[in-house]
Write a structure and sequence with these properties.
By secondary structure, the protein is mostly helical. Helices cover 80% and strands 0% of the residues.
Length: 94
């Protein structure tokens, strides 16, 4: 069973996350250019840190949508299964 169905993520959230990933892609290209130009370590590390934070925000948004789906679908007899699904996705990111 997939960790999150397509229906769990709204179209607006999906569009927002795609836009964020495109910005991250641009940042990564920028860092590649910085490396090619021989820019300073501190400057590069700052940009890498920014990318890491941006990726974490995307991951948290995806996990929140998954958690919402697990809780919504986890009513009645399947609640333990829903909790296990939610835990699985959080552990994969850590």
């Amino acid at each position: 069973m997939p960790l999150m169905s397509e229906a769990a993520m709204s179209a607006k959230l999906r569009e927002d996350l795609i836009a964020r990933m495109k910005r991250i892609e641009g940042q990564a290209r920028g860092i590649q250019k910085m490396l090619e130009e021989g820019r300073g370590c501190e400057e590069i590390i700052m940009q890498l840190s920014a990318i890491r934070a941006a990726i974490a925000k995307v991951a948290m948004a995806v996990m929140a949508a998954n958690l919402e789906e697990c809780l919504r679908d986890g009513e009645a007899a399947h609640s333990q299964e829903a909790v296990e699904r939610a835990k699985k996705i959080f552990l994969k990111f850590s």
